[in-house]
Amino acid sequence: MSVLVNLIVMLGMLVVVPAGLRLMDAPELDRIRRLWPFLAAPGALALWLPRGLPAAALATVYALGAVALALHAPLRAARTRSAHPTEIALYTALVTPSVAALALVAERSGHELFGFGLGILALTVPHFHFAGFAAALVAGLLCRTTGTPAGRFAALSVPLGTLLVLIGYFIGDWAELAGAVVLTAGMWTVALLTLRTVRTGGPDRTTRALLLTSAAVLVATMVLALSWALGEATGIPHPSLTWMAATHGLGNALGFALCSVLAWRRLQDRTLPEGGTA
């Protein structure tokens, strides 16, 4: 499982996060966008080294970049003075890679942070890249684009669900299950809004295929997330962590996150020549 998880994390670090940052209407992120490959590459290398000081040091480089990115959230909030659901989702996208990066530093150093085992810490890293950063970003973009109650619900429920899942790590499986329910509701709303975007007929064939794939994958992967959280809380049979990494994790990384950021980049490129901004 570790090889698969490492590849998923590398996709998040090296592709999804930098591509997602380019989708934000945030000139203040220009510097960290340029520096991101130099910050993410050491983190990616750390995944393949044995646990210890060298791996932890390389992971720390990535963590410093992720924390610097997170600091843009309060700066953006002070600048915009907005609690609009779109902004809340984008604040979440800015902050969540730092949670993943701190878990990575602890795991690579062999330290059981807050009592969590190294296996859980290793899985926290991809979770907060994809269910955190990518999901919140896409929910925010949909909210800003559609301006509908469903868009606002998605932009609020995805961050709330992510936060509840994080809290559930500390207080128990039932809280984590509540987070999974809220997050699933938000993600399925993202899928619904994505399908509506396809039905408008605006996107080209390739963009439609990417959007359709991301929506379909979300429906399936969040069923798996619910079944796992329910099983953890109640003790009923549920998928193993290895199975979840190979299905839920891989599906969210490739089918949802990667397809979504590629599709939104294509949508952004179509609007820019007309004088709009992303």
TrEMBL record:
Q: Give a yes or no for keyword Glycoprotein in this entry.
A: no
Query: Signal sequence span per UniProt?
Result: none
Any stretches that span the bilayer, and where are they?
6-23, 56-76, 88-106, 118-141, 153-171, 177-198, 210-231, 243-264
Q: Which Pfam families match?
A: YndJ
Which top-rank group of organisms is this from?
Bacteria
In its keyword annotation, does this UniProt entry include Transmembrane? yes
> Which keywords does this chain's UniProt record carry?
Membrane, Transmembrane, Transmembrane helix
Q: What is this protein called?
A: YndJ family transporter
